[in-house]
Amino acid sequence: MSVNVRHLALLALAASACRGIEPLPSPAPLDAVGQARVELGQALFFDGALSADGEVPCAACHRPEHAGAEPEPVSIGVGGARGRRNAPSVFNASLEIAQFWDGREEELDAQALGPLFAADEMGLDAATLVARVSASERYVEAFARAFPGDADPIRADTVARALAAYERRLAWPGRVDRFLEGDEGALTAEERAGYDFFAGNCAFCHDGAGVGGQRFERLGDRVPWPADRREDLGRAEVTGDPDDELVFLVPSLRHVGATAPYFHDGSVDTLEEAVRLMGKHQLDQTLSEEEVTQIVAFLRALDGDVPTELLAAPQ
Ligand code: HEC
Ligand code: HEC
């Protein structure tokens, strides 16, 4: 019996040690309705009219030039309201099992209603949203194309679905995917060394095609996170379970080179420092400067080739 138990434990260990990163396929071609929905979502994403003061579109915090993240430590919403968390990238969010740092929303289709109606983000209500969108002839036509057969298509849920359709289009493979599919020359020797370290040590948590977004883990898993940065309880605020304190959704690291500052509170400015902290607190290792440089080179190779026409308001 005890032999079997040990055997099972070893099998479990072997299975978990196999967690790794996976190549990301290019998004599938779209049919006409799919294309209309993406274009509508893209227009909505860049439109300040979706916010109470007309000045805070989704793209104010999820900026295309920062790979859908923001350069501020924490977000600034309508009327200059300050949030308490850093805006994560919307690129590849569709690959994650849940949304937000604490994973409180599971569906990307419903997620957009959060920022639209949050007082410190866009600060709108459903009736005002529908009224503003309906006032535009262009939107009336675009909603009819994107939701054919729906007699009254302009609603909060269709706004959210169009935004999600656009966000799903922001997951594109790049160099690292060619490498993962067998093209050894797609990474430099330095990036390759970083990959080897990452695959053996970090991919246990940052796994799958998103290089993260697949599980919840504790920040400070091996060495407690600094005491002065433990205000945000993460997952515990959603579940009410003290065991979930400082547990967060492991973020996707795709495009991470462009999404500084780092961590849920935007408290770390450079990728080098973020990697050193991960080594210390998640692995209980002091990484050498050479290792840090190699890992950062690999992380910067995680950019995907997102088509530029997706990264501005459609013409
Ligand atoms: C005022 C800044 C701000 C605006 C405007 C904003 N967001 Fe966000 N967004 C954030 C912040 C901050 C978070 C993280 C919040 C958290 O984890 O609690 C976030 C999280 C997200 C996520 C989850 C990503 C992930 O990897 O978990 C998505 C998707 C997203 N926003 C989409 C949108 C969409 C769509 C809009 C427009 C309807 C929008 N956001 C408007 C600041 C903003
Ligand atoms: C035990 C799980 C675990 C391991 C192992 C781990 N991480 Fe993380 N990582 C996380 C979690 C959880 C977060 C989110 C922390 C937060 O809430 O700010 C994170 C965040 C990050 C971030 C910040 C991303 C952002 O967008 O702000 C980077 C960069 C990162 N990890 C890189 C690494 C590297 C490199 C390694 C290996 C040296 C590693 N991680 C190992 C769980 C882990």
Q: What is the element layout, followed by pairings?
A:
Blueprint: H1 2-17, H2 32-45, H3 58-61, H4 108-111, H5 113-117, H6 126-134, H7 137-146, H8 156-168, H9 175-180, H10 189-201, E1 216-218, H11 236-239, E2 247-249, H12 271-283, H13 289-300
Antiparallel strand pairs: 1-2
Helix pairs in contact: 2-7, 2-8, 10-13, 12-13
Bound molecules: heme C (2 copies).
The gist of it:
The protein has 315 residues and is mainly α. It has 2 domains: 18-24 and 173-300, Cytochrome c-like domain (Cytochrome Bc1 Complex, Chain D, domain 2, Orthogonal Bundle), CATH 1.10.760; 32-171, Cytochrome Bc1 Complex, Chain D, domain 2 (Orthogonal Bundle). It is 39% helix and 2% strand.
Write a structural description:
With 315 residues, the chain is mostly helical. The protein folds into 2 domains: 18-24 and 173-300, Cytochrome Bc1 Complex, Chain D, domain 2; 32-171, Cytochrome Bc1 Complex, Chain D, domain 2. It contains 13 helices and 2 strands, in the order ααααααααααβαβαα. It has a two-stranded antiparallel ribbon with strand order 1-2. The longest helix has 16 residues, at 2-17. The chain is globular. The mean pLDDT is 93. It binds heme C (2 copies). One heme C is lined by residues 101, 198, 201-202, 204-206, 217, 219, 221, 248, 250-251, 253, 256, 259, 262-264, 274-275, 278-279, 282-283, 295.
